[in-house]
Specification:
Elements: H1 3-9, H2 13-23, H3 26-37, H4 44-47, H5 55-62, H6 91-96, H7 101-106, H8 108-120, H9 125-136, H10 142-157, H11 169-178, H12 188-208, H13 210-213
């Protein structure tokens, strides 16, 4: 029987799509699709699938015969890799965080939880700046150091920066002067200022949050 009959009785568009790829040759498929688009009376339910803005895109996909069934799988974003597992802090360690931001930041588990908390408040820029400064101080190459210094300045320090940190004009002025000749200490003054802000403001809020309370239950 002529393939049009089989195509017209197929239950869904997806099934029709597979039918076109595996039972039609390239030439047959091209001819059939052209006749299909010019003959909406015979196949109204299928022609509706090829209408509107996507008609050219969808026809282009159908006209390309995949080499294998793998090509028919819809791509998806892979799940992000999970961070390396770290040992959950003891109750004594977690209790120390209440009075020491440094001990919190030195603990990978605590740092991750603190960062998640700040993100939930849309106020993670201070911590991200502090972490960027820590990474910056580990750079050995003068060229890479200069590149990183420029990136940190543009992202966190300059006026209207995407993640501008809350530092006073005096601190910003010193930082700009230090960047004339970048060194491992270029951001020290600004980093200490941001550290003090987190210790005074962010840490107390974190300690009162559910993010911290789960450690001391």
């Amino acid at each position: 029987m002529y393939p049009n009959f089989y195509f017209s009785i197929l239950p869904t568009t997806t099934v029709k799509w597979f039918f076109l790829h595996f039972y039609f040759s390239d030439v047959e498929r091209n001819l059939f699709l052209r006749s299909l688009c010019s003959c909406s009376v015979l196949f109204p339910s299928c022609v509706s699938f090829f209408r509107a803005k996507e008609i050219k895109i969808k026809l282009g996909i159908l006209l390309q015969k995949p080499e294998s069934a793998i090509d028919l799988v819809i791509p998806y974003n892979e799940k992000p890799e999970k961070p390396a597992k770290t040992q959950k802090p003891s109750l004594d360690e977690a209790l120390q965080w209440r009075d020491s931001l440094d001990k919190l930041l030195q603990n990978n588990y605590g740092l991750a939880s603190f960062k998640s908390f700040l993100k939930s408040e849309f106020s993670e820029e201070n911590l991200e700046f502090w972490m960027a400064c820590e990474d910056y101080k580990k750079i050995k190459s003068p060229v890479k150091m200069a590149e990183m210094a420029k990136k940190i300045y543009e992202e966190f320090i300059q006026a209207e920066a995407p993640k501008e940190v809350n530092i006073d004009h005096f601190t910003k002025e010193i930082t700009v002067k230090n960047l004339v000749e970048p060194s491992t200490s270029s951001f020290d003054v600004a980093q200490k200022r941001v550290h003090a802000l987190m210790e005074k403001d962010s840490l107390p809020r974190f300690v009162r949050s559910e993010f911290y309370q789960e450690f001391i239950k």
